[in-house]
Each structure stands twice: as structure tokens, then as C-alpha cells.
Amino acid sequence: MSEQQLFPWEDAMMLGLSVLRWSPDQFWRATPRELFVAWEGLSGGRRVEPVVGSDLMRMMEAFPDANASS
Predict the structure, then answer these.
(1) What is d(CA 46, CA 28) in angstroms, rounded to the nearest whole number?
(2) Which Pfam family would be a valid example here (predicted)?
(3) What is the spatial distance between Cα 10 and Cα 59, in angstroms, rounded to a whole number?
(4) Tell me, what's the pLDDT at 65?
(5) What's the chain's Rg over C-alpha atoms?
(6) Is 38 within 8 Å of 15 (Cβ atoms)?
(7) How many structural domains comprise the chain?
(8) Quick one: which of 42, 5, 12, 41 has its CA closest to 28?
(9) 16 in a domain, yes or no?
């Protein structure tokens, strides 16, 4: 039986530490509600769904990098 994840810690850490560029201390002092509000602020209040692998591959094929080598 796989472990059920109750809170998306990896996503929260990615948002707080990488996107918002909070220090670890700022991140660990933030509440889940504060993380959610920060995410809403970045997305302009729109609900933003994460990109899945198949979507990313389709976008890469449709919009290749100009200098990408094959």
C-alpha cells in the first residue's frame, strides 16, 4: 500500500523556495493559507492547473527552441 500524501510538500517547497525565493526560515514560518494566497497572487486569482508530461511534450513539439539541436 502506497503512502498517502496529505499535504503537497514538494509543490509547496518549490513555490516557497524557488518561485517566491523565500529563505528556509520564511518558508517554514508561513502557514499553508499564506502559501495558497501567495500562489493566488502569482496566478492573478485564476486557478492554474499544473502541466503534465504529455502536455509538456506536446508544447515542446509545437514550440521548439530556436537553437535546439536534434
Answers:
(1) 25
(2) Phage_TAC_6
(3) 24
(4) 87
(5) 16
(6) yes
(7) 1
(8) 12
(9) yes
Which range marks the domain in which residue 40 is found? 9-47
CA-closest candidate to residue 10, choices 1, 59, 19: 19
Which amino acid would we find at residue 23?
Answer: S
Q: Is residue 3 part of a domain?
A: no
Cell of 32: 499553508
Neighbours of 35 (CB within 10 A): 19
Burial of residue 16, with CB atoms counted within 10 A of its CB: 0-12 exposed, 13-18 middle, 19 or more buried = buried
Closest CA to 61 of 70, 20, 35: 70
Residue type, 37: V
Q: Record the cell numbers describing residue 33, joined without a space.
A: 493559507
> In angstroms, rounded to a whole number, what is the distance separating the alpha carbons of residues 60 and 68?
11
Given a cut of 50, the residues of the chain with pLDDT beneath it are: 1
pTM of the shown model = 0.54
